[in-house]
Design the sequence.
């Protein structure tokens, strides 16, 4: 069942407008192959070298797959090198030797802390060479070899989580045991639109808001339930080569993002921004993204303005998990 988005009175003119602006469903249909599970292992210490504890990694099965959160101690960072995170998923019947991290199947790069990764169930089953039904069966076990390139006390160190394996004492891995797999609750997807969409809508004067109609941009209140407020926002979002600045670009992106938030549930502000393509988190929620952009504008920090421009553009284009863009 799809969850009804609170967009009542969204459009105020004739029915043909609805064909121009189709409503998007908010809730993904639950399928028989999508489940979440519980693992007997939730977190494990990460060791640099052989025995220096430098943080923890948390493993959690969620609706979409296996969520991995790498949280390093203060003063420890991921090294700024390609593919500084490498992961191998193995059946318990397979080798317990570390092997070559370069041959690990999952590789990515992150410079944020904590780093959030998401391994979809289909991908995880493929890495292990089993069917999803086997992966989600009660009692199924597999080992995770997580290799990190880190900087500890100014020195480059490789790091692994888990207890040492038998034989070679510094080979570390984490064993996960799957249990209690159940269908997840419906997943909420939030609709988002770009600058161009909102600029054109305001020009055509087609949109009204049922609630939360005040948008604040640099301390100025725009009542987007009125035609005057919509025209004011439209002017803000109209590009002009002569007047375009980093500040103006950020204001345009931020305006579109704020309107997108207004047209969804308040829970949208707490959504963690995780890229759909890589599963890597920005370590920001939607609310933190908007607040950070406001701070960049207030401080007139050009580098921060550019940073938040990019993130807001990606947000408005639906690049993150649980966001939909037509």
Sequence:
């Amino acid at each position: 069942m799809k969850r009804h988005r609170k967009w009542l009175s969204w459009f105020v003119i004739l029915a043909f407008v609805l064909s121009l602006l189709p409503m998007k469903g908010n809730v993904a249909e639950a399928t028989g192959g999508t489940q979440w599970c519980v693992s007997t292992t939730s977190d494990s210490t990460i060791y640099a070298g052989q025995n220096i504890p430098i943080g923890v990694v948390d493993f959690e099965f969620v609706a979409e797959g296996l969520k991995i959160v790498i949280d390093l101690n203060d003063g420890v960072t991921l090294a700024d090198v390609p593919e500084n995170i490498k992961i191998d998923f193995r059946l318990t019947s397979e080798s317990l030797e570390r092997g070559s991290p370069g041959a690990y199947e999952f590789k990515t790069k992150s410079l944020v802390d904590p780093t959030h990764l998401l391994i979809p169930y289909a991908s995880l089953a493929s890495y292990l060479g089993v069917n999803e039904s086997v992966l989600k069966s009660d009692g199924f076990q597999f080992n995770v070899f997580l290799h990190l390139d880190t900087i500890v006390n100014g020195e480059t160190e490789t790091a692994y989580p888990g207890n040492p394996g038998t034989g070679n004492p510094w080979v570390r891995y984490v064993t996960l045991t799957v249990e209690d797999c159940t269908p997840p609750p419906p997943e909420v997807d939030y609709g988002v639109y770009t600058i161009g969409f909102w600029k054109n809508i305001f020009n055509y004067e087609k949109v009204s808001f049922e609630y939360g109609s005040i948008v604040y941009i640099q301390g100025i209140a725009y009542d987007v339930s009125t035609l005057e407020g919509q025209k004011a926002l439209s002017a803000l979002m109209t590009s002009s080569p002569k007047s375009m600045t980093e500040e103006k670009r950020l204001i345009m992106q931020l305006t579109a993002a704020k309107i997108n938030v207004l047209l969804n549930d308040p829970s949208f502000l707490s959504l963690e921004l995780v890229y759909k393509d890589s599963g890597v988190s920005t370590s920001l929620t939607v609310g933190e993204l908007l607040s950070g952009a406001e701070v960049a504008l207030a401080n007139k920090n050009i580098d921060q303005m550019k940073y938040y421009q990019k993130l807001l553009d990606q947000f408005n284009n639906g690049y993150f998990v649980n966001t939909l863009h037509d």
Q: What stands out?
A: Residues 246-262 form the longest helix (17 residues). The radius of gyration is 23 Å. Residues 1-33, 204-212 have pLDDT under 50 and may be disordered. Residues 82 and 109 are 6 Å apart (CA to CA).
